[in-house]
Amino acid sequence: MRPWHYLVAALLILCLAVSPVAAAWTPPTDRSIVGVEWNASDPSPALRWIDVDGNTITPPDFNTHVIWGNVKKVLLTDDEVVIRDTNPRGDNLDMSGASGKVMTEIPKFYVASTNASTDQYRYYRWWISPDNITGFTLHPAFVQRGGVERDNIYVGSYEATLRVLDDGTLALDSRSGEQPWTGYAGSNPKDGMFKIAFDAGTAAPAIGATVVGTTSGTAGQVVAAHVSSGSWAGSNAAGTLYLKQTSGTFTNDEALTVGGTPFATADTPNGNAGITGTINTFETAGEALGDGYGAMNVWTYSAIRMLHLVEYASWGSQETVGLGLVSKASGTGFNGEVTGFNSVDTNVNEYGTGTGTGSAGLTPASYRSMTDLWGNSWEWVTGYTSVNTEYRITKRDGTGSLSTHPLAAGSYESSAAVPLGADGYVYGYWTSLVYEDLLQYQFIANSVTGGSQSTYGTDYQYSHNPGTRVLLAGGYWYNGRYAGLGFLFSNAAAAYSYRYGGARLEFTGAATLNGAAPAAQYALNASAGNAPFAVAFTDTSTGTPGWWRWDFGDGNTSTDQSPTYTYTEPGTYNVTLTAYTIYGENTSTTETVTVEAPPAASFSTNTTAGNAPLDVAFTDLSTGNVTAWAWDFGDGNTSTDRNATHTYAAPGLYSVTLN
Fold first, then answer.
1. Peptide bond into 598 cis (omega under 30)
2. pLDDT confidence of 3, banded at 50, 70, 90?
3. How far apart are CA 570 and CA 363, in angstroms?
C-alpha cells in the first residue's frame, strides 16, 4: 500500500453539526421515483435531482420516503430473526452484540440508468424506484448469495469484528465497542488480531481483560477465548485466546496472568502469531455463520452508494455526512478506534446519519446507521476481480460464488471496458467513470487526472494494477480527504493482509421478522348523510398498531388513531385505514361514505288569496337530499306530508314556511 506521507494537519476543516434530537418517527409513505443527473463535463461534484422524465424537481423529504425512511438499524439473531426498534437509529437496541448482530436493514428497490450525453456534454442519469415499473430492474444487491429475491438485505452497522463460534471457527460479527478485525501483515503483533494457544487453564479471563506473559512480558487484551478440550472448572482447559493490541509474542510454557493472577500457561507451538486477514479470510469468516452470510459484496456496496448519491445529489460523502475517522497518525499496528466510538450510536440524528462527538477527522461518520463506511479501516469488498483485459463482477442474478477470490470462472460477468491502469497503475481524484451495462452502478473511474477534493468525484481512486487484483473501499484512519464512499483501491492481490484492512458483514438470506403487521379495521358511526357530514371513525385494528393513516377518499388524510372528519361536498368517498407496527403495515377493506347535497327548501301553491274558508294545495319543489318535511301554515297548524293541503278557516294574512 502506498504511504500517505502527503497528508497534512489541515485536513481538520469540516465539521457537520448534527443534532440527535428529532421529531417522533412515523412510517414513511412517499413512493415517488427519484433520480439524479450528472453533468460529467462540469467539475462541480453536485448533481441535479430529476423525476422519471428527467425534469428538475425539488427533492422529497427522504426521511418520509419508503426506501430511505425504512433503512434502519436492527438486531439479527443467530436464528436469523430480525428485531426492529421504534426508530431507525435503534435507540432501544442492545448494540453490544449480546442480543444479536447489529445490522442495518435496507429495503428492496429498483433502479434505472441512462447515458443522456449530447454532442457537447456528457450527461448520466440514475434513478431509484420503490416499485417495479417499466424501464426499471431490481438492484442486483437483492438477489446475491443464491439468486433468490429478498425484500430486505442486511449490512453490518459497523466494521466487522471477530467472533469465535462454539466449535472454534472464526466468524465475522457486528457490534459496538470492539476493535474492528483487521489483518496481520507479518511484522507487528499489534496488527489486527493475535492468537495464543494455552493449556492448564483454571479460570476464564474476562473479555477485555489484559493478559500478560510472566516471562516475555507480552500483553494483549482478550477479544475471545475458546476451549477445545478440558474445562476451566477442571483446571485443565486448553484452547486459544484471541487478543488485540498484543505487544509481542509469548514464550512457551510461561504463565499467563490477568491482574497478576495466573490463569493458564502459554502453549506456543499451537498458536503464537497474528491472524492473517485476506479478502478470502473475511469471506470465509462471514460464510461460517451460515447461508446468506459473507463479507459485503460489490452489489451491496453499489446499493449503498446509490442511496447516498440520489439522496444528496452529490458524490461527496465527506462533504454531506462528515469527514469520518481519517485524520489520525498512521502509527503502528491497528491505530484506529473501536466501533461505535465517540457515542456515534446516539449522537447521530434519528435516521442514523451524522457523526460522533469528537473533532472532525477524528470521529466516526455514519450514513443511515452504517458507521465508518469510510475511515477507520479499509474494507475488503467481495465479488470483484480485475485483470489486465477486463473487470470481473459477480453475477447480477446472484448465482455466482463469492467464496473464492480471485473470482472463479462461472461466477462473474466480464466488462467490455479494459481496466484503467492495465499498463501501469495510476491514482488520483477521479474525474470520470466507466459507463457500460455491467458497470453502470459500480462507479469505477476511467480517469484520475485533473480532479481534487472539491471537484468531480471528490474522492481518490487507485486503479487496477497489472496482474489480478481485488478491491478495498472507503479508506482508513490516515487517509484524510482521499477517503469517502468513492475511494476505491484496486491494486491489491487476494493474498494481501493489511493492518488497516478489514471487512463488513452482510446477510442476504432468508430472515424472519420478530413481529407481524397488524390487521387494520375500523367502525364508523354513520355512512350516509347531508353535507356538511361529520363521521366519527373508530380504529378497531388488532395486532397493536403504533401508527395509523386514514385516507378519507377526498384527498385528505389523518394520522390520528380515531379521527372525526367532516365532508363538506356531496359525493361518494372510499375510506381506508392503514395501520402500522414496526414489522409491517396493513390496509383495511374499503368502506364507502355517501354525502348528499344539503336540502334547499322550495314549494309552490295553487293559490295565494281567496275567501274563507280557503283550500290551498302546497307542492314541494325542494332540491337536495330531502328525507322529511315540516310545514308551518302560519295559523298554528302544521303538516309533515311532502305535498300538503290546508284549509284556512278565518280571514287573515298567513306566512307559510317549509323546512
1. no
2. very low
3. 60
Buried b vs exposed e over 37-60: b needs ≥16 C-beta within 10 Å?
Answer: bbbbeeeebebbbbebeeeebeeb
Cα distance between residue 606 and residue 614, in whole Å: 11
> Looking at residue 519, what DSSP letter applies?
B
Provide CB contacts within 8 A for 234, sequence distance 6+.
none
Buried b (16+ CB within 10 A) or exposed e, 570-592: eeebebbbbbbbbebbbebeebe
What are 449's three cell numbers? 487526472
What the block records as the C-alpha cell of 52 is 422519471
Cβ neighbors of 116 (< 8 A, separation 6 or more) are 37, 54, 123, 124, 125
Residue 547, classed as helix, strand or coil, is: strand
Of the candidates 395, 369, 227, 192, the residue with the CA atom closest to the CA atom of residue 297: 395
Intra-chain end-to-end CA distance of the chain, in Å: 92
* β pairing state of 365-367 and 354-355: antiparallel
Give the global pTM: 0.90
* Coil, helix or strand at residue 125: strand
pLDDT tens track for 443-499: 999 999 999 999 999 999 999 999 999 999 999 999 999 999 999 999 999 999 999
Q: Band of the pLDDT at 627, cuts 50, 70, 90? A: confident
| Pair type for strands 631-632 and 614-620 | unpaired
Closest CA to 365 of 59, 157, 183, 105: 157
At residue 415, the pLDDT reads 98
Say if residues 594 and 527 touch (Cβ distance below 8 Å): yes
Cell of 100: 444479536
Burial of 401 (0-12, 13-18, 19+ CB in 10 A): middle
* C-alpha triplet 603, 609, 615: angle, nearest 5°: 70
Element (H, E) at 212: strand 210-213
What percent helix, strand, coil does the chain show, rounded to 5?
10, 35, 55
Residue 4: the pLDDT is: 38
d(CA 145, CA 282): 15
> How much of the chain exceeds pLDDT 70, in percent?
96
- Report helix, strand or coil for 62: helix
Q: Given the DSSP bridges, would you call strands 101-107 and 72-76 parallel, antiparallel or unpaired?
A: antiparallel
* Cβ atoms of residues 63 and 494 within 8 Å: no
* Rounded distance between C-alpha atoms, residue 592 and residue 78, angstroms: 47
Report the pLDDT averaged over residues 290-311.
Answer: 98
331 contacts: CB under 8 Å, gap ≥ 6: none
Give the whole-angstrom CA distance, residue 639 versus residue 501: 93
